[in-house]
Design a protein that fits this description.
Length: 315
């Protein structure tokens, strides 16, 4: 059967029309949903900075030998020196150019005036509270170093040190407009302010004497945990009874999770200086840590120190 041209054109037109009607009845595909945003992760900058203290620990352990420091002073190097001894002692004699901010809550107020663009050299009496100050200030963002053995056992034992001292009372600098993460500043300020809130003299200055530590250990106190940060070899040769060991050094923060959060942690090293640093970092991480005065003890810091007191050592 032949189909005329006119019929063929009509047939094609009807086919196109039915196709259009059919297509127009379909729903349009919904646009692809945007990928859900990942929930914001809250960063604990205090914890991050405190753990970084040991993760990035320099070879000098944030310390400088007393004789090397005195040579710098004698050579006229432009150093920022912070004396954290009490004002009356500072007034008697101090390192040339040193400013005085006594150990305690006053250091919280000094956060806005200490320089963040140069190294701060810190000294106390024997290096123990300076160790704490150095660590806490470093967590806050300052570049700090402790003078080994402080004034009494270090600086004043260097031959000719008198030439590097003065009695002039040096003023603190004007506020420097320092920038801090609010949480970090609050935590470090609270660390120093907390020194005034310790009612029990046994734990004053976030420290404990060798005699008080021994008493608690002898009594079998379940409220304390003793931590040696001396080397593994020296720990094996002899340590304070009940003490566990996390050797001082870069990376030691990886073992902090093994420490109890419900006990007072008594930290000791050789003379109390690196234990001071460790105590500060642990406290900023939320542990109830204290440094044992004098550490295990060496000839350099006698009569302070556990063995210098003649106390029992175990293996």
């Amino acid at each position: 059967m032949k189909i005329s041209v006119k019929a063929l054109v009509l047939l094609l037109a009807l086919t196109a029309l039915f196709g259009f009607i059919a297509c127009s009845g379909k729903e349009e595909a919904a646009p692809a949903a945007a990928p859900a945003e990942a929930p914001a992760v809250e960063v604990n900058y205090v914890e991050e900075a405190a753990l970084a203290y040991f993760a990035e620990l320099p070879a000098d352990n944030n310390m400088i030998a007393q004789d090397a420091f005195i040579e710098k002073i004698k050579a006229g190097e432009d150093l920022f020196v912070l004396d954290i001894r009490q004002p009356d002692v500072y007034a008697e004699s101090h390192v040339k150019g040193a400013v005085n901010v006594p150990w305690g809550p006053a250091l919280a107020d000094a956060l806005d005036v200490l320089p963040m663009d140069e190294t701060i050299y810190v000294y106390c009496y024997t290096g123990q509270t300076a160790g704490q100050a150095v660590a806490a200030l470093k967590v806050a963002g300052f570049d700090t170093k402790s003078i080994r053995f402080g004034w009494n056992l270090g600086i004043s034992k260097v031959e000719g040190y008198e030439a590097a001292t003065e009695k002039t009372l040096n003023a603190l600098p004007e506020p420097a407009g320092n920038y801090f993460d609010a949480g970090v500043k609050e935590a470090v300020a609270a660390y120093f302010k907390g020194l005034a809130e310790i009612a029990d003299p046994v734990w004053k200055n976030y420290k404990i004497s060798e005699a008080d530590a021994k008493k608690l250990i002898d009594e079998g106190s379940s409220d304390i945990y003793v931590l040696s940060i001396r080397s593994a070899a020296h720990y094996a040769e002899g340590h304070v009874p009940t003490a566990a060991n996390i050797p001082w050094g870069k990376g030691m923060q990886e073992y902090f999770e093994t420490l109890p959060t419900d006990k007072k942690i008594i930290v000791y090293c050789y003379t109390g200086q690196t234990a001071g640093q460790t105590t500060a970092v642990l406290r900023l991480l939320g542990y109830d840590a204290y440094s044992m005065n004098g550490g295990m003890g060496t000839p350099a810091n006698a009569p302070s120190g556990w063995i210098n007191k003649g106390y029992e050592v175990v293996k």
